[in-house]
Amino acid sequence: MTEFMRVQEKIQLARELGESQFREFKSALQGPPDAKVRRPVVDVCRDIAEALVGFANAEGGELLVGVEDDGSITGVRHSEADIQRMLAAPADRVMPETPLPTPVRLRAEFDGKMVLYFSVDKGTEHVHQTTDGKCLQRNDLETRPISTGAINLERQERASREYDRQYVDGATIGDLDTSLIERARDKVAPGHSVEAFLGFMKLMDFSTRGVQLRRAALLLFAQDVTLWHPRCEVRIFRVQGNEVRTGRDYNVSKSVQVAGALFQLISEAWDQLRPYLVETKFGPEGTFEEKILYPEDACLEALTNAIAHRDYSNEGRPIEIYVFDNRIEVKSPGGLLSNVTIGELRQLKGVHQSRNAYLARVLRELGYMREMGEGMRRIFHLMRVHDLVEPELQADPSSFTITLHHRSVFSPEAQRWVTAFDKFNLTREEARVVLLGQNNSRISPQQIIDALDIVDTDQLRSVVEQLQTKGILINVLTKVQVNNLVKREKLSSRRLVRKFAIRPPFECERFLSQFLMEVIREAGGSVVTVGSVKRAVGRLPIENPYSNPGTRGAFGALLALGLIDDQGNPIGRLRSLTLSGELVAPEPVKSKSQSRDIATAGADPEESVVEDFESGRDSETPRKVYVGNLPFSATSKQLEEVARQYGKVLNVSVPLDLYTGNSRGYGFVEYARESDATAAKNGMRKHMWGEHRISTAWARARK
Questions:
Q1: In the beta sheet, which residues pair with residue 656?
Q2: CA distance 289 to 634
Q3: Distance in angstroms (rounded) separating the CA atoms of residues 210 and 172
Q4: What is the dihedral of CA 2, 5, 8, 11, to 10 degrees?
Q5: DSSP secondary structure string, 159-197?
Q6: 154 or 471, greater pLDDT
Q7: DSSP strands (E only) in 548-680
């Protein structure tokens, strides 16, 4: 029994956390559930030795004997002599030349049943083996055989590998931020003391000199981490361009330094990095357009991995993140460990070696990291899911860099083609099918299956029906024509017949505008019902696909397009069109050169803005003010409360996003007096809305 956590508490906490990279349960029984008997003691001893060797060759860990995989306790029912053999297994069953590092062996009565508790630190002196010559390593939830050469540590790596495990003379619990530890403890071991939590995470121990803290505890929770590490920080540089220049051409427009204990460093650095992942521009149609440059989860994973696995023994360098116009580079001090290669990482084999075993374990238990070795695979997967090129990996003896590009795997022409269907709420799968129909290409079901990696016929049917419901996918062949083609071409399957086509985007726009115009006329500003949609559809020309939109019906088409909610309330674009009271269905255009213009026609008309803050040019509407840089959660009511500070307000509007129904990030305020409008235009730009500084300009009337 330790001074800071009883063995019963260790066992209970381990059961609650479950098996992981750092924890394994072993039964001491065998046989059917209602007739279990004792396992041979030699088998249990072998399992104990193999599990602890696997932990020592990985990141360290703990083993509970007498506990089933689901955490239920069945106990050790063996004789006292057999139990003593089990407790001796970490020494007797491990090769004497590769002894385990400081193994812990405890026994306890738990719910009236005997449980044996073992734990071991990560080994740095030896590659550990069992007495029968097995070399094993813990990997996620498995203990696997591995060659001794693959985990043989090079001497020059020891300083970095041992850095976080070292005890720091003179450091006390008073040097730690108790509030941070309590927050961490409440995630992992609620109800336990701070000391018990630190002990369970092996961040603290007792000796004859009293409490001893490992360096990992100070890196994670220090009140002032700079006293223990001068570069426990992340620096973010925004570079205007694709390369850093020097001298007069120096092009770093913004530099942010985030420092602190690691437990809070991840979230604080993420808050500073996150705004660079999205680009928001005022588009040509008078709307704010938001473009996702990088998948958030991939960037957060790259940041977390850099913080968890950097070489902290290199105390002179921080983690550096460069945000260029075309990419993000995350550079961490310390090259790859000798038994991990760039090639293995690129092949996504899940290989891993934690330089900082104690840091990685705590961050894993706190949920900042997934199972060990999954981080790189997850980053590659997320970039692929977002149709972006693969991450670029670089390593040299002093650093490791991962680069995320916001370059699509598709050509600019393909991207423009898909963008023409932006108003149709396409899923990723639907967008890929639309791509198949570029340049008037006919599409076969097999092409869709291959493009989407479909294994289920129902999934194919769902994607096809959804695109037909949205009026995008056309059946260009009848069943009779398909059958004739199969016979004439001697095809092995009907799936090979190119029977689908994608309707040109300008036609899709025209038909959708006709449909929405009738829906708005029928429903007005009220809830859209199945009946009102049926009456609206009845007035559509026969060639309009929404007059017969497949199996889901016209009401289902509005749902699929993201224009109404399940109760029929207009949202997003339909709500905006309803409020504006204006919708013009574009005329059909046959010229290809005109198709891009048609793709944007029929959008909700809005007032354009001239942001001439200092030009002194007279405004055409001197009582109406454009208010920009609002958060996307802003509402008209909230903007009105701010606007009233400057005078009598006649009208306030915050345009809504076509698809989400949220604010677009700007609004308009009309005042009763020109002097009030002038005061608002000058005064509101000094106003902070959360973290957003408001911008203002005169609103120009529509021509």
A1: 663
A2: 16
A3: 9
A4: -110
A5: HHHHGGGSB-TT--GGGB-HHHHHHHHHHHSTTS-HHHH
A6: 471
A7: 624-628, 649-653, 666-671
Give the chain's count of helices (H) and strands (E).
24, 26
Per-residue model confidence as pLDDT tens digits over 138-184: 988 899 998 887 766 544 566 677 889 889 988 999 999 999 999 99
Q: Tokens at residue 128, please?
A: 């550990």
* Centroid of chain to Cα 445: 32
Residues 626 and 666: beta-carbon distance below 8 Å: yes
| Rounded distance between C-alpha atoms, residue 195 and residue 181, angstroms | 10
Q: Alpha carbon of 203 to those of 173, 211, 217, 628, 661: distances in Å?
A: 11, 11, 5, 49, 48
The tokens for 549 are 């939109």
Task: List phi, psi (to 5°) of 9.
Answer: -70, -40
Q: List phi, psi (to 5°) of 312.
A: -75, -15
Whether 74 contacts 29, CB under 8 Å: yes
Gap between the Cα atoms of 473 and 500, Å rounded: 7
Q: Which two tokens stand for residue 499?
A: 């029977």
Copy the structure tokens of residue 614.
């200092």
Q: d(Cα 518, Cα 530) in Å, to the nearest integer?
A: 13
Q: Which two tokens mark 703?
A: 């021509």
The enclosing H or E element of 459 equals helix 457-469
Strand partners, 107: 116
Q: Which two tokens stand for residue 561?
A: 């397009």
CA dihedral 421, 423, 425, 427 (to 10 degrees): 20
Extract the tokens encoding 435.
Answer: 């791509």
According to DSSP, the β-strands at 37-38 and 29-30 are antiparallel
Q: Which residues pair with 677 in a beta bridge?
A: none
Tokens of 551: 């199996």
Q: What is the pLDDT of residues 189-202, one digit of tens each?
A: 888 889 989 988 88
Q: What is the C-alpha to C-alpha distance for residues 203 and 487, in angstroms, rounded to an integer? A: 73
d(CA 237, CA 34): 64
Pair 142, 180: CB distance under 8 Å: no
Cβ-in-10-Å burial (0-12, 13-18, 19+) of 367 comes to exposed
The C-alpha atoms of residue 504 and residue 599 are separated, in whole angstroms, by 9
CA angle 227, 231, 236 (to 5 degrees): 140
Nearest to 203 by CA among 190, 186, 184: 184
DSSP 8-class letter at 166? S
pLDDT of residue 611: 32
pLDDT at 506: 83
Torsion angle, CA of 627/630/635/638, rounded to 10 degrees?
Answer: -70
Q: Which amino acid is at 95?
A: M
**Encoding tokens for residue 211?**
């409490």
Radius of gyration of the chain (CA): 32
Mention every residue, 6+ apart, whose C-beta is less than 8 A from residue 551. 465, 469
Residues 6+ apart with CB under 8 A from 370: 364, 378
Closest CA to 176 of 128, 146, 132, 213: 213
pLDDT given for residue 603 in this prediction:
30
